[in-house]
Amino acid sequence: MLLGDVFPNFEADSTFGKMKLHDFLGDSWGVLFSHPRDFTPVCTTELGRAAQLSPEFIKRNVKLMALSVDSLEEHHGWSKDIMAYNNAEPGSQFPFPIIADDRRELVERLGMLDPEEKDRSGMPLTARCVFVIGPDKKLKLSILYPATTGRNFDEILRVIDSLQLTAHNRVATPVDWRPGNSVMVPPSIPETEAAALFPAGVYTKDLPSGKKYLRYTPQPNTQQQ
Ligand code: BEZ
């Protein structure tokens, strides 16, 4: 999958029932993320954190979906462990679907396997992939971690804030940007156009090269989704 590709409209079994990706997403953004196996330690911490942050994703109009090569029965059993790990109220439901790709069709089709990491039977493990899909069903961002390194779901929220802002405004977000921080005017916008486009002002940092490419402007306040 390359940035800008339309994400395949796959059908799958999930803990929320049968799903067809594009129908499930509707007008929302989506985050599809894979994990190596159910009932493993790092994956439990990751899905636990994603479950805790689920209201933050909902606030941003983003639907989460996890995926692994385990069965539906395993997903249902493991999600109870994850909720207990989170010290959630007994009986509370895991907040988003986990896709059962036990025939390994999706992990192969979507390039989610890590040939460097094998399970006990010698099969390649599923890597920790993250795909952010826009309301137009196109891939907006992908991240690929090996099985041995857990992800940071606060960072995934942060990049969604950037993706949603930059989908509606001709700006770019700098290193470690957080909502409310100044943003950058991209190099594609000529100086003559920048002043009109950014009425809040453009600040250009002087540099030894004399080139005027480090241009900041306050974050525009427009719709996020
Ligand atoms: C884990 O989730 O802890 C894990 C899974 C597969 C390989 C390494 C770690």
Radius of gyration from the CA trace? 20 Å
Q: Strand content of the residues, in percent?
A: 15-25%
* Quaternary class: single chain
CATH topology name of the largest domain: Glutaredoxin
Low-confidence stretches: none
Q: Kindly name the structural category.
A: alpha+beta
CATH superfamily of the largest domain: Glutaredoxin
- Residues in helices, as a percent range: 25-40%
CATH C-level name of the largest domain: Alpha Beta
Mean pLDDT reading? 96
What is the annotated CATH architecture of the largest domain?
3-Layer(aba) Sandwich
Give the topology string: H per helix, E per strand: EEHEHEHEHEEEEHEHEE
The count of DSSP E runs of length 2 or more, i.e. the number of strands, is 12
Largest sheet: 7 strands, mixed
Bound molecules: benzoic acid
What count of structural domains?
2
How far the N terminus sits from the C terminus, by CA atoms, comes to 23 Å
Domain Thioredoxin: 1-165
Function: Thiol-specific peroxidase that catalyzes the reduction of hydrogen peroxide and organic hydroperoxides to water and alcohols, respectively.
Active site: 43
Keywords: Antioxidant, Multifunctional enzyme, Oxidoreductase, Peroxidase, Redox-active center
